[in-house]
Write a structure and sequence with these properties.
The complex is a heterodimer of chains A (about 250) and B (about 800).
Chain A lengths: L12 E12 L2 E13 L4 E5 L6 H8 L7 E6 L2 E2 L5 H11 E4 L11 H10 L6 H14 L15 H14 L4 E5 L7 H16 L3 E5 L3 H4 L4 E6 L2 E7 L13
Parallel strand pairs in A: 3-8, 3-9, 6-7, 7-8
Antiparallel strand pairs in A: 1-2, 1-4, 4-5, 9-10
Chain B lengths: L1 H16 L1 H30 L10 E7 L14 H9 L5 E15 L5 E8 L3 H5 L5 E2 L11 E4 L1 H8 L9 E4 L2 E8 L13 E4 L16 E6 L4 H21 L1 H4 L3 E6 L2 H41 L1 H9 L4 H37 L15 H27 L3 H8 L8 H37 L9 E7 L8 H17 L3 E7 L8 E6 L14 E7 L3 H5 L3 E4 L13 E5 H7 L9 E4 L6 E8 L14 E5 L7 E8 L9 H11 L8 E3 H7 L2 H35 L1 H9 L4 H30 L15 H27 L3 H7 L1
Parallel strand pairs in B: 3-8, 5-7, 14-19, 16-18
Antiparallel strand pairs in B: 1-9, 1-10, 2-3, 2-6, 2-9, 4-7, 5-8, 6-7, 11-20, 11-21, 12-20, 13-14, 13-17, 15-18, 16-19, 17-18
The chains are: A alpha/beta (about 250), B alpha+beta (about 800).
Chain lengths: ~250, ~800
């Protein structure tokens, strides 16, 4: 795999010189120092790097939770950096599925309601359709039998499976997973990774942040970040010998 | 719609999961909405509810005003000449005009004669209200010169056993036969409360003569209730006033007519109306404090739910949806609060209605919980829901999803300075409002105390008062009246346990008759003499010693001042100060302004008596000897010997009256203390209500500051742990936490004091013996509020001192 990132208008995700600067009092923190990146439909990408390298910031920008301080971001061919909060919310709802480290299920809602939640934020999905898609998503993760349960009645692994179902329910273009195994023991972590692999095999595009090399190498492609820059981008089948600076 | 239902379901579930939060918020809102509904029900029932007559918008109340005599907002009733000119004016645009006056009427010829309260009305009176009678008919013009009467529902039931055949029956009123022509239903409300029967007044009798002292409270019905109809009436009243002033300048110069829509404020007067609106303002403050408290609770809860909100935002929820969910929850809380508040109000409305002094308003039984009041509750609940939900909803919608999700992962868990500032501001507002209400309650309380402690000029203890109204038939002339009183005083004085007896014309602290007079050298056309009057009392010589009225100059009245002796009068100090400030009053002669003027020599000056009420200045008074100028009205004062309960004398006194004249009914029997206390019943009611509201607000404000400081301590647990690990003593931590509370309390007290001073003038008319800006009261309430608030701060501060530094550091 080439280590050089190219601009590609057919990319699902296209980042061109994305920077993110946080201003705290009078201190500037450069969380992302210029990211050039293309992710295509059906890819399974892992983002790795040491703590504080900008992994989570990058994922927030990819997930439209945050906006770049500088640079271009195209999602599915559409530029998103100028979108309003409401438009980003709408796009996030349709194009992005989130899987969090701490599951982030809402304790007051049942499993099925949690999965249905992103669909309730759309005006064009009927109640019957929402139910059908919720059931289908729960079926895909093997949790349909626990639909009426509350999150606190499930194990950590089961909660993460429900979180995956919630991410799938909206039929997003891409699944963004932030340390999906970080709060799980190795057995449950393995199960969740297997589930993500299955989804990828089924055609899903997945971008996963992880600091665990075992899981990073499950992805087709691993991107290493350091000090807010991509220092390595390679197919997992051909690990790089050493980090190489890809961008200026 | 389905998503809204989902929001409702989710909100309900979330509230059930936090029972303590829900209970606190619902209880606070129930209190706020409940007390607001109670006072609104009183205001609505007494002031705003449409009067219970057909087309009430057509009704007007007409009085007369004179800028140099009548107070602002007050009016005088119409003299007969003015009434008749108005009634007979074809250009007034009125379809009916009615005149009303009070009198007593003795129902005799029954086993126990009864003194009744009668309304002397013109025959057009019932046409104004257009309410059909329950039985028989109302007055027609022919009744003006016929001995007829109409019974009230109460008298029909109590004296005539609800006998439907009473119509057409002849009964004896003041020993004269009158035919009952109708019975009004219990739902008939009129201008004054407690009317037992209505008597028609003749157009040709002495009561309607130009020189009659009778004044008519006048109501009328407009043919056209639009602005055009009202303008027509106003134009007519201008012409009438000018004509009256031209024809009789001695009486009508500078007088004008005033026409107002007939509504509750007319019935209870300007001062009581202002008091009711002030109370409504007070409960508005209680409601605001409630809302601030609940908003504070919700902000804390919203801060605790940042992760959930962050997840929803990450899943694509718009800010609108986030706000809607937060508002749904707060509206649900308000709805639950309103439900409970209405239950509270159902009890509270009855309680406050029972506290209203008798005779406060004829609309008193309109104070109830009905649809308009419930509508008010719904409106208030909705407003409370929006007010309490708006800040948390806004805060939730403005949440940064990245930050809130990071917080969930343990990276930056605090709410941020914005939220803390908002909650601190709410607490400051609560304290300021609490101070305003406490100041109001404090001022009312001091006013009540000042009223009760004031020297009224008479001894109130150990004295029984009995009202009497003699029959003008059996006691038609003065010697007959004087003889009745002479025998009564003699018998009453002989009752064992009686220390002294006194007689006045009317019961102190109730109504009084006027003495219109000319000073030496004045003639009736003299402008200064035009409205010169004092209270008039026909008394026995012993009344001064019985009531403890002190002699200041000259002599008191004596038994020798009888019908054959020169006419004399004793006046009070207020009289001298007002009318003879530079002269020696003794020996001066006052000439009564009546058809047959008489001259009275001033023989003595006595101390002042606050006879119009404890909190009113003593009016100028003139006392005549009952042997020279008796009246058919009387109040008998029986002073009990030490150790004797004056109430125990009522039976023997009633028996004494019965022995003198078996047909003479006994009027109201009460102690003088009760009569005096009745005059401050309103002040007492307002004080109690203000105190209740102020207490509620104080509690809510203390709860608010406790919650804020406790939450702050929760957020600063680690910081406090570090400080303690570095060697901070418990006292250092206590000071650290208390400092925050002290700041909030100080700012709240300063703001509250400023607001209380700015609003002080609104209370002026309700206070007696204390200025609305009284520094002692303001200082006292500031100390009370400051103390309660600091206690509320001290509790969480004390808890902070017990933080285990090791544990606090480990928790992070």
């Amino acid at each position: 795999m080439s280590t050089e990132t190219q601009t590609d208008s057919q990319s699902l995700i296209h980042l061109d010189g994305v920077k993110k600067v946080f201003l705290t009092d009078e201190v500037e923190t450069h969380a992302l120092a210029g990211i050039f990146l293309d992710i295509h439909q059906g890819e399974y990408v892992s983002i790795a790097g040491p703590s504080g390298c900008g992994k989570s910031t990058l994922l927030s920008i990819l997930g439209l939770l945050d906006t770049p301080s500088e640079g271009l971001y195209r999602l599915n061919g559409h530029p998103v950096e100028g979108l309003s909060f409401a438009d980003r919310a709408r796009l996030r709802n349709r194009e992005i599925g989130f899987i969090f480290q701490s599951f982030n299920l809402i304790g007051d809602l049942s499993v099925a309601e949690n999965v249905e939640l992103p669909l309730t934020y759309r005006n064009d999905v009927s109640s019957a359709e929402r139910k059908r898609r919720t059931t289908e998503a729960l079926d895909r993760v093997g949790m349909s039998h626990r639909g009426r349960h509350l999150p606190n009645q499930l194990s950590g692994g089961q909660q993460q499976r429900v979180a995956v179902a919630r991410a799938l329910a909206g039929g997003p273009s891409v699944l963004l997973a932030d340390e999906p195994t970080g709060n799980l023991d190795s057995r449950n972590g393995e199960a969740v990774m297997n589930l993500l692999s299955e989804l990828h095999t089924g055609g899903a595009t997945i971008v996963m942040v992880t600091h665990d090399d075992r899981y990073a190498h499950r992805a087709d492609r691993t991107i290493h970040l350091f000090d807010g820059r991509v220092v390595d981008d390679q197919n997992s089948a051909a690990p790089a010998d050493a980090p190489v600076a890809l961008t200026a | 719609m389905t998503t809204l239902l989902q929001d409702i379901r989710q909100s309900l579930r979330a509230l059930l999961r936090k029972p303590l939060f829900t209970a606190m918020a619902v209880a606070s809102l129930a209190l706020g909405i409940g007390v607001s509904t109670v006072i609104f029900s009183v205001v609505y029932g007494l002031l705003l509810r449409p009067m219970p007559y057909p087309h009430p918008e057509q009704l007007v109340h007409i009085g007369m005003g004179n800028p140099s005599i009548t107070m602002e907002g007050a009016f005088a009733f119409l003299p007969p000449a003015a009434f008749k000119q108005l009634r007979d004016d074809p250009n007034s645009g009125l379809t009916a005009v009615g005149g009303f006056g009070y009198d007593y009427a003795n129902l005799t010829g029954v086993s126990t004669p009864v003194q009744l309260t009668a309304a002397i009305v013109t025959t057009g009176y019932f046409r104004v209200f257009a309410v059909p009678p329950a039985l028989g008919r109302v007055f027609v013009d022919a009744d003006a010169d016929a001995p007829t009467l109409i019974l009230s529902d109460r008298i029909w039931r109590t004296q005539f056993h609800a006998d439907a055949s009473v119509v057409g029956r002849t009964v004896a009123i003041n020993d004269q036969p009158r035919t009952v022509v109708g019975v009004m239903g219990s739902d008939f409300k009129e201008l004054n409360d407690g009317i037992d029967l209505w008597l028609p007044i003749s157009d040709h009798g002495p009561e309607m003569a130009a020189d009659s002292p009778r004044r008519f409270e006048t109501t009328a019905r407009l043919a056209d209730a639009s602005e055009a109809g009202r303008a027509k009436l106003r134009a007519c009243l201008l012409v009438l006033a000018a004509r009256l002033a031209q024809d009789d300048p001695a009486h009508y110069k500078d007088w004008h007519f005033e026409a107002h829509p007939l509504a509750g404020n007319i019935l209870i007067g300007a001062s009581a109306t202002r008091a009711l609106y002030l109370l409504l303002g007070a409960v508005g403050c209680v409601l605001l404090v409630t809302c601030a408290n609940v908003a504070n609770l919700q902000l804390v809860r919203a801060a605790a739910r940042r992760r959930e909100t962050g997840v929803r935002l990450a899943l694509g929820a718009s800010r609108g949806r986030i706000m809607r969910l937060a508002l749904t929850e707060s509206l649900l809380l308000a709805g639950l609060g309103a439900g409970l508040g209405v239950l509270l109000a159902a009890w509270g409305v009855d309680a406050v209605a029972a506290l209203l002094p008798a005779g406060y308003s004829p609309m008193q039984d309109s104070v109830r919980l009905s649809w308009p009041e419930l509508g008010f509750s719904v409106l208030v609940a909705t407003l409370a829901g929006v007010i309490t939900g708006l800040l948390p909803a806004w805060a939730a919608a403005r949440l940064d999803p990245v930050g809130s999700l990071a917080a969930s992962a343990g990276r930056g868990a605090s709410e941020g300075p914005g939220g803390t500032r908002v909650r601190a501001t709410l607490v400051v507002v609560e304290i300021a409002l609490a101070l305003v209400l406490l100041a109001g309650a404090g001022l009312m309380g001091r006013s009540l105390l000042a009223s009760l402690r004031t020297d009224v000029g008479v001894r109130l203890d150990r004295t029984l008062v009995v009202g009497l109204s003699l029959s003008t038939t059996r006691y038609a002339d003065r010697p007959q009246q004087a003889e009745f009183y002479r025998r009564l005083l003699e018998r009453a004085a002989a009752i064992p346990g009686v220390e002294g007896v006194g007689l006045t014309e009317t019961v102190l602290f109730s109504w009084y008759d006027e003495f219109n007079f000319l000073l030496p050298g004045q003639n009736p056309d003299d402008p200064a003499a035009r409205h010169q009057s004092a209270t008039r009392d026909s008394v026995n010589p012993a009344v001064f010693s019985t009531l403890g009225i002190s002699l200041k100059q000259g002599r008191l009245l004596g038994e020798r001042d009888d019908a054959g002796a020169p006419l004399v009068v004793v006046v009070n100090e207020a009289f001298v100060k007002k009318f003879l400030p530079t002269d020696n009053p003794l020996g001066k002669r006052l000439t009564s302004k009546s058809k047959t003027p008489s001259e009275f020599e001033i023989v003595g000056v006595v101390g002042d008596v606050r006879r119009t009420g404890l909190s009113e200045a003593a009016p100028a008074a003139a006392y005549f000897c009952y042997l020279q100028r008796p009246s058919v009205y009387a109040a008998l004062y029986v002073r009990a010997a030490a150790g004797i309960d004056p109430q125990s004398l009522s039976k023997p006194v009633e028996q004494a009256i019965g022995q003198i004249d078996p047909d003479q009914p006994v009027g109201k029997v009460q102690t003088l203390e009760q009569a005096a206390s009745g005059s401050v019943a309103y002040v007492r009611l307002y004080t109690v209500l203000f105190a209740v509201f102020a207490g509620l607000t104080l509690g809510l404000a203390a709860l608010g500051i406790y919650g804020t400081i406790a939450y702050s301590v929760g957020l600063r647990t680690r910081e406090i742990g570090i400080r303690m690990a570095l060697g901070a003593q418990q006292g250092d931590v206590l000071r650290l936490v208390l400092r925050q509370g002290v700041w909030l309390v100080t700012i709240g007290l300063v703001l509250g004091t400023g607001t209380a001073l700015a609003l002080a003038h609104l209370m002026t008319s309700l206070l007696y013996g204390v200025k609305p800006t009284d520094p002692a009261t303001l200082a006292a309430v500031a100390v009370i509020l400051g103390g309660a608030s600091l206690l509320a701060s001290w509790l969480p501060a004390r808890k902070a001192t017990q933080i285990d530094p090791l544990r606090a550091l480990r928790e992070e």
